[in-house]
Amino acid sequence: MPRRFESLPSAQRKILLVEDSKAYQGMFRSAFSETDYQLAICDNGRQALELIREQYMDFVCSSFYLKDMEGIELCKAVRDITKNVYKPFVLLTSVDSQDLLKKALPSGVTDIFQKRDINQLLAYIRRFPFQGQKSTGRILYVEDSRSQREMVCALLQARNLKVDAFASADEAWAYFLAEDYDLVLTDIVLDGMMSGLNFVNLIRRQLGSKGDTPVVAITAFDDRTRRLQLFNLGITDYIIKPVVEEELFVRINNLLLKQHALRLVANYDILTHLPNRNLFAERFNLAIANCNKHKTLLAVCYLDLDGFKQINDRFGRDMGDGLLIEVAARIREVMRPQDNVSRQGGDEFALLFADLESQAQCEAIVSRMLASIAEPYFLNGQTLSIAASCGVTFYPRDDADPDTLLRHADQAMYQAKLGGRNCYQLFDTSREKALQVFQRQLAAIKQAMERDEFCLYYQPKVDMQSDRVFGMEALIRWNHPTNGMLSPAAFLHQLAGTELELALDTWVIGHALQQLELWNEAGLKLQVGVNISPKHIKSAGFFADLSDALRRYDRVDPRQFQIEVLESGVLDDLATVSQVIQNCRDKLGISIALDDFGTGYSSLSHLRHLPIQTIKIDQSFVRDMIEDPSDHAIVEGVISLARAFKLEVIAEGVETERHKQALLELGCAKAQGYGIARPMPADKVHGWIRNYQR
Questions:
Q1: Where is the GGDEF domain (predicted)?
Q2: Phi, psi (deg, nearest 5) at residue 554
Q3: Which of 73, 447, 448, 497 is the most buried (most CB within 10 A)?
């Protein structure tokens, strides 16, 4: 006699095995023992048919060869009894035969499995919907027959599906555009202005996810032409009237499961089940909109685990994955319902704390989260410890777009790591704004170079005792299109330490040599000094670039060219700078001046070992030497020092006749300054020299 089912919940899936081998029955029962399926076993086909007449079976598995009939015959009989061609019926065989499959399918067999593949069969069964199973999803249904519409709605709603049903495609179309549906079910022949075919066509013309919505067509005509027409329009599946309840549910449920799986892949991280970047981006935009609407504070956080790579490398990827899952769970526990978290990849997470009353509220949440993450983990018999670093920025204080806000939080997180890890750092919006201004300024200077907006002015150097003009200092100017002629103080400080500073130095060297060549041709013999940045002096290519420039302007005597180096820049790396200027003097023949002397606190030993020819006394001492005895003493000391080391000395900042007389009394004849001449364009130099000498 067949084994009777015990009284179990009706929602439990009922599986029937028809098999005469006791050993295989035991294997089958063992495989299904840990499932919630209700299993019945019959020894032959006759018992199975008797049971099927009495009870509903969700799934039938039958051996191909039974004592009283073949499995194919049993399948045909089951179809006759149930009047249902959609009930899954699987044949079990001991051989793999394509011929057997071709013979079985026309008889109504759903599929064929080898008996040894019980686990594959179990996975296959799990994918099939069954009587009483609840689904989830929202369906848009169009049917002009009221009785048919009410019947199908009742069937779908009984399966826990939400249905919006309409008699016309015109009315349904407006709802489709305004709402989000998981599936569209539509009759093809409809009353009204819009046919079902036109409705499907309009859906497929939509952009994004709306255009990809699964569409199941219902048609009363099943012929080759109609099928081609429907599939060419882009339907996902179709059903022939009259609608059979189980067929309708099987087809719709499978599509909804696929949609759900696609959305999981598209929007969620497979490992932690947290939202991925795509879904987080959508929620980020909503959070900003809500923040603007309600005038609240939104915290954007970026979190990175400290020491995760070491654990992953030591214990393996499986342990690392398990740790990420645990971390994700701890983060969720701390978060509030209105907050959002996303795994951005690897061991990095992004978080949104919405509707904050204050910054302190966010800091309290982040502190709890970091403390929770730092608690020990017990995985696979191992005790693991890990921590996290977190960066935080606040919107709308940091009034930027989502991508920039995340980048700012990431930058703050990096600062937290530099600050010792296992802590959080707040993003400094004022520093970022200053950086943005700086970057815009650099871009403007680069553009000015490309547009040839820079030029050189020249300030004369004279011997005050003989009134001889012996040289010029080349000083850069920016001929700004809107702000006029700008002095170096307006822009050079912005270039300090950048590659653009080196490029501008190179430009100055080239243009100064070119001007020297033109003056030589005009019979004007001068020495020109150019200021070179410390970074450029110490760069690997400086000496080679300078050599190339001198070769290009070979009509200039290298002794006419002087490099001026800031004293403070020399002291930063004395050995390197000394070697470079030694090569410039000995191999190229150019002279070197130590600029702004007195501000860098050079020691006598430094001065003794520097291969320089000239000291330029900083103008701050010269300008105040008349009124300030201390500055007068400094100037006098520098002049004496230069005389002791047999160096030429030039005083900067000479502004009055009193400066001139005081310097001459101290033994310094060479000078430059506004009292002699202001910097001037190159075309004014020749005329100025003639007038000065007269």
A1: 296-429
A2: -75, -5
A3: 448
